[in-house]
Amino acid sequence: MKGRLLLKLFKSKKDNDLYYYFNTKKEKLWCYRYRYYDALNKRREKSKQGFKSEKDAFRALLEVKASILNGEVKKVENSNLTISEWLDIWYETHKNDWKISSQIQRENAIKHQMKPLLGKYKLADLDKATYKRVYINELLNKYQPSTVRLFHRLFKVAINAAVDNEIIPRNRFNKIVISGDKEKDNFLTSEELKTFLAGAKECLNITNYTIILLLAYTGLRKGEAMGLKWEDIDFDRNALTVQRTRDNKGVRTPKTKRSYRTILIDGKLNHQLKFYRAWCRETMISFGKRLTDDSYIFISYKTATPIVENTVKYSFDRVLKKTGVKKVTPHGLRHTHATLLIGQRIPVKVIAERLGNTPQMILDIYGHSFKDLEEESVSAFSDALNL
User: Fold this and answer.
1) CB-hemisphere CA count at 13 Å for 232?
2) DSSP β-ladder status, 28-37 and 233-234
3) Long-range contacts of 14-21 (CB under 8 A, 24+ apart)
4) Prediction pTM value
5) How many other C-beta atoms are found inside a 10 Å radius of the C-beta of residue 113?
6) What is the DSSP pairing of strand 28-37 with strand 18-22?
7) Is 382 part of a structural domain of the chain?
């Protein structure tokens, strides 16, 4: 206990580990000092001072004793751990388990968002109200709700790790909902998608049109599409297999275990890929290269080398400008694919497997679409009774 050598402690009659003392202002305050054995049978002491009443100090002491009796030694030993300290421990412990893109994303979030806003708070004491006020609300003043939701999700990952390490008993922040998330508007209706794809076919080269068609008809992530090789397409079975992702940071395994998947494709996309493969073969020959099963599917007509991320972005901007369709991102075609499937009453499990997500993630992300279906089902039931 900081400064306790300068204090004269008087034992409470209520508990042998409970004391009172007088500070420099002659105010009577309370504290506790509790000795225990840790998991390695080493003698430890947990103490805390500054309580204004004996009742508060006694309650805190009982919580410590209960935690020790329940085997929650880590919880007691780390009760003074700050958010900043835990984030450092979490990152250094797990960074080698993450893909480089996740490392960079989490390192930046820790440095620029989490530590500046939450770093000073104790991990064990941060409550939901404070978290929403000093973190979520502050972030909403600077970023779009969809971005804030990302920072919130990353922080929950860090907190879940603390729970797994038995430093805190639970994650208090799991049920926080960030309203006004514009991500739910990042999709096209079926008519808008038809207009968008028609415009893409008219104004884009064959590579850019084909990748946009594939994104729309499969719901693949952009990096998954860029990572496709010809060996991943089974033209006879009308199937496509995702087994890698590629972006400007390099080639990596898919985002999660569920992201490894084989999905069916329809005849239109199958036909376009066959047509595109013939074009790729001729283009690569013109550059003195040979098309193989190990070749990446999407290549530049200027160099016959795999396309880069900006290629897709520039293609989107061009099509949006030509068609006048509302602005969506490449990821918006994934949302479009999912939303249209939901509208066709495809089971959640099937959609999840197709997108490489869990059913719960589908429910979380597209809850608004399911809400629309629920309201529609109520009307349908009433109509049925009125027949």
Assistant:
1) 22
2) unpaired
3) 14/54, 14/58, 15/58, 15/61, 17/61, 18/54, 18/57, 18/58, 18/61, 20/54, 21/49
4) 0.60
5) 22
6) antiparallel
7) no
Within 13 A of 124's CA, how many CA atoms are on the CB side?
Answer: 17
pLDDT of 72: 65
* Domain identity same for 195 and 344: yes
Shared-domain flag, residues 24 and 150: no
**pLDDT tens profile 35-86:** 877 656 777 778 888 899 999 989 888 887 777 676 666 665 656 778 998 8
Structural domain count, the chain: 3
How far does the chain reach from its first CA to its final CA, in angstroms?
A: 77
Kindly report, residue by residue over 133-147, the tens digit of the pLDDT: 999 999 998 888 888
Q: Quick check: 56 and 87 in contact, CB under 8 A?
A: no
Closest among 73, 84, 88 to 126, alpha carbons compared: 84
Written as one letter, the residue type at 231 is E
Q: Which domain holds residue 60?
A: 4-77
* Token output for 368: 């608004």
Looking at the structure, tell me whether residues 102 and 174 fall in a common domain: yes
The answer to whether residues 167 and 74 touch, using CB atoms and an 8 Å cutoff, is yes
- Whole-number Å distance between alpha carbons of 357 and 162: 25
